Amino acid sequence: MNDHKLPISEGGGWTRRSMIQVMGAGALAWAFPEYMSAAARRIPIAVQLYSVRDDCRKDFDSALAQVAEMGFAGVEFAGYYNYTDKPGDLKKKLDALNLKAAGTHIGVGTLRGDRLKATIDFHQAIGCRFLIVPGDDAFTDPEKSKALADTFNEVSEILKTLGMACGYHNHTDEFRKDGDKTYWDLFAERTTKDVILQQDCGWTAAAGFNPVELIRKYPGRTKSTHFKPTIIAGDTGKKAILGQDSVDWAAVYSACASAGGTEWVVVEQETYPDAKPAMQCTQESLEGLRKILARV
């Protein structure tokens, strides 16, 4: 028998250094993900298909093929076009292009009553786990916001048993206040940790808030997040392409990797600088993000 001594502390307990020595970095990262650096835990990158919505309307299959060719690992849906009632065919198309269903943007009505089962069935069939609501008037209604949060909690309990989750995506209105708290904070407080807080970090910055601080404020709840190139008012010499805009994406990514529990970074290109085609701007933002990540 090998009689090597284990590197424990003088007091007989394990130290972080001794764990690394014995387990190795790979095993430690698996057991203790909070110790992983942003560089060690690469998060897959998807595209929100709203970025190329006109291309999707014209030829959805071609649009999917083009974003796959760019190198995106997944897509977040904003409609299903010719696959609305054909989840099996859509799954085959995604598999053929080596794309994952990173999530979807759907109305809150699809999560209520009899519609919930159909919503679950469709998204299970395409391998889509994250059902995200990209806005609802009740969110910022002082008389309805709590009831909306309750809806998310109820749906989340059902989805959790299926390995799925629901969540909400912000714009700027969600940072208005009801009393001394923003509606975003109120929603976070009123919902369980299983409800995703899908920050659109561009909109967060445009509203005058720091997306990094909010990721860290609610650890583990940024399972999916939007990286949308954004120019903050008054910031000159910028362009709405990732890496050329106003947001510190390296810091945001590091927070996602270390605190957010982020499983998907979703690129969303809503504006198209220099009147370039949407596909070209989306590709430029992906390339810009890759350059940023090379330095993280």
Model description:
The protein has 296 residues and is α/β, with parallel strands linked by helices. The chain has one domain (42-294): Divalent-metal-dependent TIM barrel enzymes (TIM Barrel, Alpha-Beta Barrel). The protein has helices at 16-31, 53-58, 60-70, 87-96, 115-125, 145-160, 183-190, 201-206, 211-217, 249-260, 278-294; strands spanning 45-48, 74-77, 100-105, 130-133, 165-169, 177-178, 181-182, 196-198, 224-227, 264-267. 39% of the residues are buried. Mean pLDDT is 90; it is low at 1-39.
Summary keywords:
TIM Barrel, globular, alpha/beta, 296 residues
In short:
With 296 residues, the chain is an alpha/beta fold. 41% of the residues lie in helices and 13% in strands. The N terminus is likely disordered.
Low-confidence blocks of residues: 1-39
| Helix share bin | 40-55%
Number of strands: 10
**CATH fourth-tier homologous superfamily:** Divalent-metal-dependent TIM barrel enzymes
Q: Categorize the overall geometry.
A: globular
Number of helices: 11
Radius of gyration (CA) equals 21 Å
Q: How many domain units? A: 1
CATH topology: TIM Barrel
Strand order of the largest sheet: 8-5-4-3-2-1-10-9
How far is it from the N-terminal to the C-terminal residue, by CA?
A: 43 Å
CATH 2nd-level architecture: Alpha-Beta Barrel
What would you call the structural class?
Answer: alpha/beta
Mean pLDDT: 90
CATH C-level = Alpha Beta
Biggest sheet features: 8 strands, parallel
Strand fraction? 5-15%
Note the quaternary state here.
Answer: single chain
